[in-house]
Amino acid sequence: MTQYVAIFSGEYRKYWRQDQVGYTDHPKDFGWWPFEEAKKLIAGIGQDKKLELVPYQPTRLQIVLRQSRN
């Protein structure tokens, strides 16, 4: 089973949006990625951003909708 995470910015105290442009504190608007993909996304970003990978369990419907867009 794939483990999903949201990316939380401790600097802004908000979550990354799915398009990786901007931040949000609304759960319906924040992005989520497979763990390994999220690790790669934040790999080159400085520690001053205080990024954390927060476990997230999308619904089955969210996963199906995401896959249909790709």
Radius of gyration: 12 Å
State the separation between the terminal residues, measured CA to CA.
Answer: 19 Å
The SSE string, one letter per element, is: EEEEHEH
Number of DSSP helices?
2
- The fraction of residues in strands falls at 25-35%
Q: Runs with pLDDT <50, length 5+? A: none
Mean pLDDT: 92
Largest sheet composition: 5 strands, antiparallel
| Percent helix | 25-40%
Please report the total strand number as a whole number.
5
* SS-derived structural category: alpha+beta
> Given the C-alpha coordinates, what overall shape results?
globular
List keywords for this structure.
70 residues, alpha+beta, 5-stranded antiparallel beta sheet, 2 helices
Folded structure, characterized:
This protein is an alpha+beta fold. Helix content is 26%, strand content 27%. The protein contains 2 helices and 5 strands, in the order ββββαβα. Strands 1, 2, 3, 4 and 5 form a 5-stranded antiparallel β-sheet that branches. The radius of gyration is 12 Å and the shape is globular. The mean pLDDT is 92.
